[in-house]
Specification:
Elements (H helix, E strand, L loop, with lengths): L1 E6 L12 H28 L7 E4 L11 H16 L4 E3 L12 H7 L4 E2 L5 E3 L2 E6 L21 E8 L11 H7 L6 E6 L4 E5 L2 E5 L15 E9 L5 E9 L5 E8 L5 H9 L7 E8 L6 H10 L4 E6 L9 H4 L6 H11 L4 H11 L5 H18 L8 H21 L12
Parallel strand pairs: 1-2, 2-3, 3-4, 6-7, 7-8, 8-10, 13-14, 14-15
Antiparallel strand pairs: 1-11, 5-6, 9-10, 11-12
Helix pairs in contact: 1-2, 5-6, 9-10, 10-11
Bound molecules: manganese (II) ion (MN).
The site of manganese (II) ion has 6 residues, from loops.
EC number: 3.1.-.-
GO molecular function: 3'-5' exonuclease activity; DNA end binding; endonuclease activity; manganese ion binding; Y-form DNA binding
Keywords: DNA damage, DNA repair, Endonuclease, Exonuclease, Hydrolase, Manganese, Metal-binding, Nuclease
């Protein structure tokens, strides 16, 4: 039997809401996962049970961007050293956030003997062979041959980073990967979608471990990682068991207030104060009618009740200041008015698709950057971006645009993104 921790989307270095404390939280969450792996060794040895994990599998986006700062790099190195000292291997692939044009950070950790970069050759732990599939932009997936070297282990798992079917926002077909792969996988361990979920595709277990800290306010569920056990049944066939382990992360308090006519900031403050806000990130969302609310007044109330920080989004504000006689805005449906205005602007199809993606309320913030990356990547492939002469250079700029767009959505109090973000 082989037992592994499957984690990913750690996003170390993300200074969410421009908060140094939040940045530390992302590193803390990684350390908590590593601690669990290390602790499982001593618990397993002490009790003689086989609770010990045999490896930590990382499915990409260990770092939030390709240029992590020194404190984050040193923090990760120190955690990996502790893991190595406990004789637990760290096997990983490269995600879209941290990918560089040449050598990856993961290669440095590998050179230091602290990690193994998974790929087309098997890395065998216990009686399971692990393979890797780094994130590949959509426009280059047709070139993939899914050619993996054979193994003689009892079970095999593919570790990948991307938005795969049958999960929401997918643009990468799991059935195709499994059909074309030269190795028969018993499990596919994924990163990229920050929502933990498990499904079966053609008899293969496919699972996302979820992010380990909330990288956007859409990630309301508790954070954690997967504990995956590979075994075999009486007939000798491989079995896969996926379980969730939750992590003790920064408290988030979500306060959704629908104001009635005549209600205002007092009502919002009253709703906010009903929660325990100690050290919490407080995310306030205002809908309905009522009087104008100054976000600063709500934020002050949250901070004085012990919150780490507060973000207030007044969904009634969109289009609220627009001069109705000038643009004929229908206040009942500001989104429709914005759509109308965007149509009039005569943007290119790519710009329009980007705009739709960024404002798509059904698309979680955490997926916006991935979508934007795919769209820009496709535009580059089609040659429809004017100055994308060098596809490699364009890649680098795209990644910055993604981050800016995502930051704008995550961080900007009014959730506005201008098209400058994509240039
Ligand atoms: Mn991610």
């Amino acid at each position: 039997m082989t037992r592994v921790i499957h984690t990913g989307d750690t996003h170390v270095g993300y200074r969410q809401y421009h908060s140094p404390e939040r940045r530390q939280d992302f590193l803390d969450a990684f350390e908590a996962v590593i601690d669990d792996a290390v602790d499982s060794q001593s618990t397993g040895n002490r009790t003689g049970s086989d609770d010990a994990v045999d490896a930590v599998i990382h499915a990409g986006d260990l770092f939030h961007d390709r240029r992590p700062d020194l404190p984050d790099l040193l923090g990760v190195l120190s955690a990996l050293r502790r893991l190595a000292a406990a004789d637990v291997p760290f096997l990983a692939v490269v995600g879209n956030h941290e990918a560089t044009r040449g050598e990856q950070w993961l290669d440095l950790f590998s050179d230091l003997g602290l990690a193994t970069r998974l790929g087309a050759e098997p890395t065998v732990v216990g009686d399971t062979a692990f393979y890797g599939l780094d994130h590949v932009p959509r426009s280059r997936r047709d070139e993939l041959d899914y050619d993996f070297a054979p193994h003689d282990a009892d079970a095999a798992a593919l570790v990948g980073h991307g938005l795969f079917t049958p999960f929401p926002h997918a643009d990468w077909d799991t059935e195709t990967v499994l059909d074309e792969a030269t190795v028969d996988f018993d499990a596919v361990l994924l990163g990229d979608n920050h929502v933990a979920d498990t499904a079966r595709v053609d008899g293969t277990w496919v699972t996302y471990c979820g992010s380990t800290e909330r990288a956007s306010a859409d990630e309301r569920d508790a954070r954690g990682y997967n504990l995956v056990e590979f075994g075999s049944d009486a007939g000798g066939d491989a079995t896969v068991d996926v379980r969730r382990r939750s992590l003790d992360t920064r408290p988030f308090v979500f306060v959704d207030v629908e104001l009635a006519a005549g209600e205002g900031v007092d009502r919002v403050r009253e709703q906010v104060r009903q929660h325990d806000l100690t050290d919490a990130v407080v995310v306030v969302s205002i809908t309905g009618e009522g009087d104008p609310v100054t976000p600063a007044a709500v934020e002050e109330a949250a901070l004085s009740a012990g919150a780490l920080l507060a973000r207030v989004t007044d969904h009634r504000a969109v289009g609220g200041d627009t001069d109705a006689t000038d643009t004929d805005v229908e206040f009942g449906d500001p989104d429709a008015a914005v759509r109308e205005r965007v149509r009039e602007m005569d943007l290119s199809p790519t710009a329009r698709r980007l705009d739709e993606t960024v404002r798509d309320g059904a698309l979680p913030d955490s997926n916006v950057r991935d979508r934007v990356a795919s769209l820009v990547d496709d535009a580059v492939a089609e040659g429809s971006l004017a100055d994308a002469a060098d596809a490699e250079d364009a890649d680098a700029e795209d990644a910055d645009a993604e981050t800016n767009a995502a930051d704008a959505r995550n961080g900007a109090p009014d959730d506005q993104v201008s098209m400058e973000d994509f240039q």
